[in-house]
Amino acid sequence: MATNSLFLLPGDGIGTEIMAEVVKIIDWSNAEGLTDFSTDSGLAGGCAYDAHGEAISEDDMAKALKADAVIFGAVGGPKWDNVPYDKRPEAALLRLRKDLGLFANLRPAICYPALADASALKRELVEGLDILIVRELTGGVYFGEPKEIIDLGDGQKRGIDTQLYDTYEIDRIARVAFDLALTRGKKLHSADKKNVMKSGVLWDEVVRGVAKDYADVSFNHILADNCAMQLVRNPKQFDVIVTDNLFGDILSDVAAMLTGSLGMLPSAALGAPDPVTGKRKAMYEPVHGSAPDIAGQGIANPIAMIASYAMALRYSFGMTELADRVEGAIAGVLADGLRSADIAQENRKTVGTQEMGAAILAKLKA
Ligand code: NAD
């Protein structure tokens, strides 16, 4: 009997095309006895709105809550631009993040040697780059109350957002980041603005406290603005960076662009460990959207989606060897010169979604 369950939500646009390539890899690894995944799939985003009048149905939410990991494609598209706000495709993502309690967003920035010339930075600065940004996802200034615009009279208004963090929120994200650092380069930077923000002072105090439990990890504090600068000056100095919701939003996009195309970027969102089983709720998804401009053409890059699945193998199931193999297969096809349209290069072969997926699967089989 299958012991590990995956719930697949391909979504809209290219979501379905790139998810199909992941399904082929799951089918292969199950047949080889390397995994024992049971899979089920549902609707999220515009397709769910068309079917049920909601961005995600209660039935599919229940399945997502029960699964060991959710693998998510992408949602949205012009067809649903005018649906009611609370039913728009992106509402599915927000609901999943909220109900699954996904407070830790993992955004790796890996520069494959074969693509080092596609970066905006010089090859020597990015070749071999492997950074993991751990962003707090459910707190901070995006959610803090009060959050409003008030009328001051005399034509003046005041816009208010509130940055607030409680000890437990900082403690749990710091522990996720330190645990991850232990499995990687054992180096962690914590980025905040403690020089000007009280929430930053508390952030630093709590992270330093957690650091005492991780003697094997080298801990470094960095101001968030300096972190942004260092990411483009000398990105290879970083291993894991932990930061809050706002700074993480910005720093992870900076780090992502060091590596080239949106079609290459995976992500994970993790919740708290279950007190009984120790398993975390988790969702894995490419950073990009549903790319309506190329949907249906069979030319989307499936690498971000497949790399997101590799993250699921690593972080939800501890299948480090298989995750390494999948990531190695991606690096392998790129080294062989295969490129999807978004990363096309002169003198390299441009292939479609299915051909790229098939080449990665062939490398896995080899
Ligand atoms: P997008 O990421 O869908 O596309 C931006 C550009 O990158 C497009 O030119 C697209 O063709 C290209 N691109 C993206 N992924 C690619 C891939 N795998 N292969 C090749 N090219 C790729 O962002 P957008 O155009 O701003 O948004 C389109 C829709 O997606 C909107 O409805 C938006 O709300 C939604 N969206 C969803 C998510 C999500 O589901 N997580 C994230 C971002 C945007």
From TrEMBL:
Mg(2+) binds at residues 225, 249, 253. Its cofactor is Mg(2+); Mn(2+). It is found in: Cytoplasm. InterPro entries: IsoCit/isopropylmalate_DH_CS, IsoPropMal-DH-like_dom, Isopropylmalate_DH. One of its GO terms (molecular function) is magnesium ion binding. NAD(+) binds at residues 77-90, 289-301. The keyword Manganese applies. GO terms for cellular component: cytosol. Its EC number is 1.1.1.85. Residues 5-360 form the Isopropylmalate dehydrogenase-like domain. Catalyzes the oxidation of 3-carboxy-2-hydroxy-4-methylpentanoate (3-isopropylmalate) to 3-carboxy-4-methyl-2-oxopentanoate. The product decarboxylates to 4-methyl-2 oxopentanoate. Belongs to the isocitrate and isopropylmalate dehydrogenases family. LeuB type 1 subfamily. Homodimer. PANTHER family: 3-ISOPROPYLMALATE DEHYDROGENASE (PTHR42979). This is 3-isopropylmalate dehydrogenase. It comes from Devosia epidermidihirudinis.
